[in-house]
Description:
Distance between the termini of chain B: 33 Å
Order of helices and strands of chain B: HHHEEHEEEEHEHEHEEHEHEEHEHHHHHH
CATH superfamily of chain A: P-loop containing nucleotide triphosphate hydrolases
Number of strands of chain B: 14
Structural class of chain A: alpha/beta
Structural class of chain B: alpha+beta
CATH class of chain A: Alpha Beta
Oligomer: heterodimer
Number of strands of chain A: 10
CATH topology of chain A: Rossmann fold
Radius of gyration of chain A: 17 Å
Distance between the termini of chain A: 21 Å
Number of domains of chain B: 2
Number of helices of chain A: 7
Largest interface: A-B, 29 and 26 residues
Strand content of chain B: 15-25%
Order of helices and strands of chain A: EEEHEEHEHHHEHEHEE
Amino acid sequence: MSALIEIRGVTKTYRRGGEAVEVLHGVDLDIPRGDFVALMGPSGSGKTTLLNLIGGLDTPTAGSITVDGERIDRLSSGDLSRWRAANVGFVFQFYNLLPVLSAQRNVELPLLLTNLGAAERRRRAEIALTLVGLRERARHKPKELSGGQEQRVAIARALVSDPTLLVCDEPTGDLDRATAADIMRLLQMLNREHGKTIVMVTHDPKAAEYAQRALHLDKGTLAPAGAVDGA
Amino acid sequence: MKFLPLLWAQLFRRKTRTILTLLSVLIAFLLFGLLQAVQIAFESGADAADAKRLLTTARYSIIEPLPLAYRSRIERVPGVVAVANADWFGAKYQNESNAFPVFAVDPARYLDMYPEFLVAPAQREAFVKTATGALAGKRLADRYGWRVGQKLPIASEIHAKTDGSLNWEFDLVGTFDAEDPAVQGNTDMVLINLAYFDEARQFGRGKTGWYIVRVGDSEQAKAIAADIDRQFMNSPDETKTQPEKEFAIGFAKQIGDVGALVTRILLAVFFTILILTGNTMAQAIRERVPELAILKTLGFSDGAVTLLVLGEAVLLLGLGGAAGMATAVAFMPMLNGATGGRFPPLFVAGETWALAALVAVGLALAIGLPPALRVRRLRIVDALAGHR
């Protein structure tokens, strides 16, 4: 598999109370296209920071990040927004759906940034909701859905613009064991059957078992933990 | 347009708060619509003024009469193309409260001087030819239910007939109207024939109240006005000639500077709206910082989220403003009915709508810009971290 994501010598430093804190120390990492990687590690190890850098939500202090041949660390804020819209789908622990919009409208949100007409946006949102098994709940607002259903809507929103990369931050962190397993099976299906490259941050070893491999971060340094057998 | 459902949903996220805010904006623009209508009504005389018309009155008081003989002398002033004159009759109809202007005029000269007054040719002809003829403004005739052909008994507060009676009787030979609402406000009056009036009155014969002068070139109006006044300088009846608009503004200001009063009230109203709505908007955006961060995460640029916040403010002010103005329009028939036609017609003019749109957009920008800029500066990772 060719490397979809190439990370070279990435450091990230934050300023906290006038003091510089280096969260990542020269991380090197290759993630092949079609990979499903679980990033694990204790709190404060820098996994979410690394995930944010891979997803183009933040920029590194030093080093380079290349995704599908594009140096995203060099993109301006506006270009990075456009890049995210076209290439990355995001799934969060707390779903982060807009409470005032129906499931359908939430899923359509990324498509508002495209030139697609209303009918096509609706059609694509319906396909994404069908894929996650929630088409019949399209008109429901987030508060009318269970946690698992909300996360499925969030996954549909992440998929709707057919991105190359899915970035998931603790996608099962707010769910019970059975629902978490459902969500992980869904992500695994997207990886295996639809070829989505997935980078997932998790504390949960059970969730990590669904990934192709797990990587461990500790104090801002990456320590390969070997391949994880698929569930 | 594709963002409208998103804007709408965000705006009505907290329905009660939004509806109360909308109501306050509605009330502000309702006041705006009504007060602007009142101001326009007060200024209708000035708005309807013709730049080529001058008013010549007695120099020291407009109630002092001028000799009728001045007419031919004014006509001879270079640049003057026509002269008409009018005299104040001071009328009451049936009882003390039914007062309206009645002017004694030379029918043909007066109607030629005011072509904006629309009168049927046959009725104009009848007015010219009938010594006891009277022409009434259509709104006035409608108010009192007058019909063309009827006798019009009017009492004068000033002029007695030769027999000493203050009760006069005229023949209503026609009505007149105007297309422009600003001019319509000036049609609430009755015109009577000066020749008959002058012959029948007990005193003041050979005099008239004022002259209306048409000049050929409005650029020369001031100079011609000075020439006219020079004609009568050092005579027992000195004159003061000024452009019709200047005269109308001065006359309206005798009641008070309505424009300045309206402006001050509206400034206070909109300043209050600015503070109230601005605070509500800032609070609403603060509550939604994590959601706006999500929009940025999904690829909405800094500019796009800034425009979304501004769009929400524009939608709020637009909805409230349009509802307020529409309510003002709906109130107009009731207000016009309540004044019984004693006040120039109130209406929401096109320029008032345009001004309301400008005010709404200006307020929306002032209210929306601070939170919009805050959202623009928002760092996604900080906002998402705060969400947890």
